[in-house]
Amino acid sequence: MIKFVVILKEKRKGELSLELLERHIGHLRDLNREGKLMVGGPFKNNEQAMLILHCGDIDEAIKLVEQDPFIKEKYYHSYEINELIVANEENNWLLDSPQTTGNLIH
C-alpha cells in the first residue's frame, strides 16, 4: 500500500453546517474503519486541512477524496495529492534512496 498526503485547499469560511460536518466525519470514520485513513485534520491557520491516506494507487486516493462531502459540496474548492515516501529506521531514513542520492551535491 502507498501513502498519499492530501491537502484540502480554498476553504469557504463561515459556510460550514453541522449536517455537512457530520457527513464529512462519517466519511472519515468509514475510511478509518477500512484502514485507509492514517491521520487527518485542519491546519491551525484555519485555511487548509490534511489527510494521509493508505491506498493501492493514486486512482484510489483520488476516488476517496472525491467522495468526501467537504470536496463534493465545495467546502474546500480544491485539493492536492502527493505520494509520500516514508522515511524511517527500516529504510535508513532514505539515506540510500535514489531520490536522496540524486539530489546530493557532488
Automatic annotation (TrEMBL):
Pfam family, one: YCII
Parts of the chain that traverse the membrane: none
Domain YCII-related, residue spans: 4-83
Signal peptide (residue range): none
PANTHER family assigned to the protein according to its UniProt record, in alphabetical order: GSR2449 PROTEIN, YCII-RELATED DOMAIN-CONTAINING PROTEIN
Family stated for the protein in its record: Belongs to the YciI family.
Protein name as annotated: YCII-related domain-containing protein
Organism: Mesobacillus subterraneus
